[in-house]
Structures
1.
Amino acid sequence: MYFSCSGSACSGATASRFQQVQNPVALLPQDNNGVIVMLPGVPANGALWATGSLVLGIGTQANNAPSGVTAYPADQFGEFTTVISGSAAALTGFLDSGSNGLFFAAPSAGQLPDCGVFNAGWFCPPSLVNLSAINTGASGSPSGVVPFQIGNFNILVTSPNYVFADVGGSAPGIFDWGLPFHFGRNVYAGIEGKGSSLGIGPYVAY
């Protein structure tokens, strides 16, 4: 997304293709067909910190060979389809390690209450909630179940920890698989038009 600003007032704007910033990985002389985000698992109550790796290339070197993952084709926007268990609504799903939570609309009223005034928009269930969703590639296949948990944001953020795998908030019509999704997984992102043993990008795999 791009923005145009006048003083301190900014609004969304359209950028010409010439002005748009390209993923620099695609411009590398080698290892340029995608990246792998590798992050450790995080306990239910969080962790003080976490250290991972961003690996360049997919299947181009000994350290980036795909193993035990399923590739989900994405559309030109990097999106696929997500359906939360208990709901028939198909949501626009995407992976985003830059989002600090899982963002989606609660599948049923009252299941994931809002945190209230100080942390409005975040989920604060009275106890840990176990959920699952089905991701389907933009081409209609494959499909796979992803289990996940949502904890009480107000309680979690008052702990001494800074890293959480079970925080989420409300976002209608989409499912933003943010940073919590990436913990405990190797997540592959294939660049558009670039090939690997997982297929031709864009795709995500985990």
Note: The longest strand covers residues 129-136.
2.
Amino acid sequence: MTPTARTLAALRSDGYTPAVVEAWIPRLNIRRDLFGVGDVLAVRPGTPPLLIQCTTGDHHSNRVNKAKSESRLRAWLQSGATFEVWSWSKRDDQWECRKTPLVLDEIDIRAIEPPRQRQKHEENLFTLNTEPIEMF
């Protein structure tokens, strides 16, 4: 069973309605997380939406550090929603889940690059040439 499948089962048992929001892009053979960090989105009445990054125990700290440098996570948290990294490890023949919630104060705004500005081009490729054309 994958970390995502374990997360879905745990969320359902806690009364959440979860959905996988990670997308597989076949032509590129890569996975794309929601907002660069989320694998599962879970909702429950009376609770803010919860976005979760699922992983194995060995990759927990890598995923936490990656999430802290993602500008879109900052926007997610500013909306009042929550985010956690969940990692699954097997200890004594039993699966344990380590949960690390991230809050707005922990997002490293210094590591976030500002959005790139579009370059202005002198010529517009879509401007029609209105000069008359000589024929023959």
Note: The chain has three helices and seven strands.
